[in-house]
Design brief:
single chain; about 325 residues; 4-stranded antiparallel sheet
């Protein structure tokens, strides 16, 4: 009877310990899922190392760089906003599974800030729609492969994140852009040469099409052959253009149709107001204009600008 009583007490003690551990784990998971800020230090620059040396051990990963560089503040800068959005899109396409759990959570937090910014200022709506659609499509593919270690975290957490993406998409679709109360000079009041000059600054053909739908006069300007020719020559090489020639009914080159055909076949030229830069001398990665402790005689000549794709390629081993 003593042995049975002792075993009974041990069983109760074991069940009590398991209950306490499970309760603490649920509480910890709940706090982690509700956390909006991560416990990592945001730095102005980081040292990118790809191997172990006597001075440094280990290597820098994409997730580590994404966590340590201050992307949360970068999205508030209009010069860096498009750069960060493009980087988020490229990560969503192919690099999401390479991020650590905290980097994935940081990714979603930054994405939420991007959406909130667009909802407030009502700018870059189409750009964020495309980003959310790319991310949702990638997650639909990854969630189907649960059990093969492709995603970090519980499946329910990712389902909740996908629901958040659908909610953000609905919010963006419901945006009603209001006409400003300002009654001064408008775009259509400008001389035609100035209107055409401004339209030449647009780097996306879809913006030209949307602008042409505002007024009949703008529709005529948006069909200007020279406008579409310059747009094609800006984004694509002469060789690429020669491979996709399209003639109109009048026997002339249809630059507008050629542009939309070219963007389906080749990547467009990317240009950003501000980019991340890598110092080739000391292997330090930082935003343009950020001073870092460089030991080179001419630090300006050692820095090279990185496109979002080049930033990702930097961490491929």
């Amino acid at each position: 009877s003593f042995c049975k009583k002792d075993d009974h007490n041990k069983e109760n003690l074991f069940n009590s310990i398991n209950y306490d551990v499970a309760a603490k784990k649920r509480k910890k998971d709940l706090l982690n899922n509700k956390a909006k800020t991560q416990y990592f230090h945001q730095e102005k620059w980081i040292y990118v190392h790809k191997g172990s040396t006597k001075e440094r051990h280990g290597y820098c990963t994409l997730g580590e760089a994404f966590n340590r560089l201050d992307f949360s503040s970068a999205i508030l800068d209009s010069r860096r906003f498009n750069y960060v959005v493009r980087l988020l899109e490229l990560i969503a396409k192919s690099q999401l599974t390479s991020l650590s759990g905290i980097a994935q959570k940081n990714y979603m937090n930054i994405l939420e800030k991007v959406v909130q910014k667009v909802l407030e200022d009502q700018q870059n709506i189409r750009l964020i729609r495309e980003l959310l659609q790319t991310l949702y499509t990638s997650l639909c593919t990854l969630v189907q492969r649960v059990g093969k270690s492709v995603l970090v975290g519980n499946i329910n957490m990712w389902v909740h994140r996908m629901e958040s993406i659908l909610h953000w998409q609905q919010q963006l679709n419901n945006i009603q852009i209001t006409r400003p109360a300002f009654k001064g000079t408008t775009f259509t009041d400008l001389p035609l040469c100035l209107q055409l000059n401004i339209m030449q600054r647009l780097s996306d053909g879809r913006d030209l099409v949307s602008l042409g739908q505002v007024a009949p006069d703008l529709q005529v300007l948006s069909e200007d052959r020279l406008l579409w020719k310059k747009l094609c020559q800006y984004h694509f090489t002469d060789r690429q253009i020669r491979k996709r020639l399209i003639l109109s009914d009048k026997g002339q080159l249809d630059w507008k149709k050629m542009y939309f055909k070219l963007i389906r076949c080749y990547p467009r030229k990317e240009q950003y107001g501000d980019t991340l830069q890598l110092c080739r001398h000391c292997h330090i990665l930082s935003w343009k204009g950020t001073d870092h402790p460089c030991t080179a005689n001419n630090p300006e000549t050692c820095s090279t600008s990185l496109s979002p794709q080049e930033f990702i390629n930097l961490f491929r081993f």
